[in-house]
Design a protein that fits this description.
Layout lengths: L1 E9 L5 H15 L4 E4 L7 E8 L2 E8 L2 E5 L1 H6 L4 E9 L5 E3 L2 E3 L6 E4 L5 E5 L3 E9 H8 L16 H11 L9 H23 L8 H15 L8 H6 L5 H9 L5 H17 L9 H7 L5 H12 L3 H30 L8
Antiparallel strand pairs: 1-3, 2-5, 3-4, 4-11, 5-10, 6-9, 6-11, 7-8
Helix pairs in contact: 3-5, 4-5, 5-6
Amino acid sequence: MSEKKQTIFTTDDVRPAERYDYWHSVACRQILPHDSTPHDRASFEAMIKAGALADLGFLEWETTPIAVTRSAKHIAQDQSDDLMFLRLVSGHCSPMKQNDSEVFLNSGDMALVDPRFPHDSGFSVRSRLQCVLIPRKALESRIGVTPALMTRIIEPTLGDAGLLSLFLQGAPNHFGYLTPIGGAHIREHTLDLIALSLGNLIGRPADLSSPARVATLRMRVFIEARLEDPELDRATIAGAVDLRVRQANDLLAKEGTSITALLLERRLARVKRVLGDPIQAHRPIVDIASSCGFRDLTNFARYFKNAYGETPTEYRNAALQMAQNSEDGIANSHTAQEDDDSRPGRRSR
């Protein structure tokens, strides 16, 4: 239900001349397609960390000063419909512009950005930014999503926003260690806190967790615990929360999904995680898909490409190449250090 936060990219072990281009290719793949310009290519440094809480993605990245633009061209290339809830961990953001709004984020400040619309941002000094990727319907069902919510500063003062800021600061460190039911509950609390803080901006009460949401939560937990079962079907999932299929689908429709769609989404997410794991690179893709509950292997690759924009093979090759490049960078760095240490006249420390 949750994935441990880990570093998926760093320039520490990449040659300085290659750092920005390598970072940009990874950032476009892992965060969002965009154009960017570093203030100084020669001294550019960056890192990206990623984790997950059910269907909420948690990203964190740090770079030296940079300007970022997301245009209509990039939006056309991107199939994601997630919203981005941002929290500046440290540093200072350049003007963040979207829909005729412009804000300056300081350390601790938060804001909601809609990737379906062009926006400009960046860092004026070395900065670190945290991002929660939220399925649009999951937030819309709680607070609605209007232009009035976009690029508005949420300051981490006492109260709802202060609690949210502290929660986002510490919670990702526990991902990967949560029980399925714990992860499902914390997902709901995360969305509730974000909705509360956004609602306070515009004076609108948020529709928080209710008996209906609890039933939805229980369905998510039930599905997550039984993804590998190819016999898992709509009636079994609905029956687990004492509902008929139609009633269960009506509840899930408020979050823009259904029993069938949610089951497929979670199975694909698990396959994607395994495909990106170098330790499991020896496993055939069909074996991975079967172990995640896919019985219809003929259509599996089509489902995967529809969800992620590339085939399972393409995704695995790119993910494993990224991991290999990181290992090569570390090896090259160590070799360079050894060569430097072996030069005549080099003193031991």
